[in-house]
Amino acid sequence: MKTHKRTPFRAPGGAAEAPAGARPRRGAGRNQPLPAGRAPDAGDELPDAVEAAPKPAPRRQGKPQTGRANRGNIGRNGKPLIEAKPERLQKILAQAGVGSRREMEEWIAAGKVSVNGEVATLGQSVIPTDKVKVGGRLINIRFTGAGARAPRVLMYHKPEGEIVSRDDPDGRPSVFAALPRMRGGRWIAVGRLDFNTSGLLLFTTSGELANKLMHPSSELVREYAVRVLGELTDEAQQQLLKGVELEDGPASFASLTDAGGEGANKWYRVSLFEGRNREVRRMFEAVGCTVSRLIRVRYGPFVLPPQLKRGRCHELEEGEVKALMRELGAAKAAPKP
After folding, report:
1. Separation CA 38–CA 134 (nearest Å)
2. pLDDT score at 195
3. In angstroms, rounded to a whole number, what is the distance separating the alpha carbons of residues 56 and 290?
4. pLDDT given for residue 159 in this prediction
5. 248 belongs to the catalytic site
6. Cα 58–52–7 angle (5° rounding)?
């Protein structure tokens, strides 16, 4: 007759052995072996020898540090911040849309900027958790590290009769009155359009991006639809393409094409790679013609959408802005021919 071996922890049939007269343990009939590799949980019944072993003390779960010890990784709300290296204060303020880098340097030198309650100094660096104030107003600073949110960019269809300025002594309507309101930053105009000029006007929350879009090194084309009063001869057209002399230096169109029209008014499409004050109007005046209407239809990769009505704006998607910034960075890094 075959006999079953007994183990110190198991009785025949799977029931745990207990001394005579002893009260049975709770769940004694459920004392089954655990599968290999699985740790016991609260519902498992363990053998006596295992239960007798001392249990390790549970580890204390500490809260994430939010003070100076972990300042670069944890924000004031206890959530982890993006990894960002310290950046120069004037650059961060420009990215936040407060103003240009040069303006920020002047404000820092004048003592108008503070960091964590102390007056800032030129060349000072900041991190995401620093509290930066300009004129006593808290600024929502933005960093460009991995995972950082892209700046906002607007396309605005400027009508005639609006000025590209926040302060006008004559009280004329401002383009900024039509833009979405924001907290902790401001809209920066990418270039300007005259009071009597309409068309595409760009705005962004980043002074750094605005500077890249306006800087001559980016070589972004500006294209205009121009209605001219007076005859523009073939000789005058060639002169505008070769260059005319203005009071602030020579200027020329990169392209000039006839766009039709009847009577005394004729339309032309012109393009150039700079944006001096009233440059297009002054160039036509230099050859004896008067501009009766001027519309900017393109700025670099941005084309005025036909469905965008005058006085309305369209905001770019974050992916579009990031693609634009990559293109600008690639164009700057590319070697000149």
Report:
1. 59
2. 94
3. 91
4. 97
5. no
6. 130
Contact 154, 313 (CB under 8 A): yes
What tokens appear for 189 in the block? 């105009």
Cα separation, 265 vs 228, in Å, equals: 6
Spatial CB neighbours of 332, under 8 Å, sequence gap ≥ 6:
212, 217, 218
Beta pairing, strands 198-204 & 290-299: parallel
Contact call for residues 296 and 223 (beta carbons, < 8 A): yes
pLDDT of residue 11: 42
Residue 113, class by beta-carbon neighbours within 10 Å (0-12 exposed, 13-18 middle, 19+ buried)?
Answer: buried
In the block, residue with structure tokens 């060639």: 238
Q: Indicate which residue of 48, 170, 194, 234 is catalytic.
A: 194
Query: Could you report the per-residue pLDDT of 174-184, keeping only the tens digit for each?
Result: 999 999 987 76
Question: CA 224, CA 90: separation in Å to the nearest integer?
Answer: 34
Query: Which amino acid would we find at residue 127?
Result: I
Amino acid of residue 125? S
Rounded Cα–Cα distance for residues 149 and 318 (Å) = 8
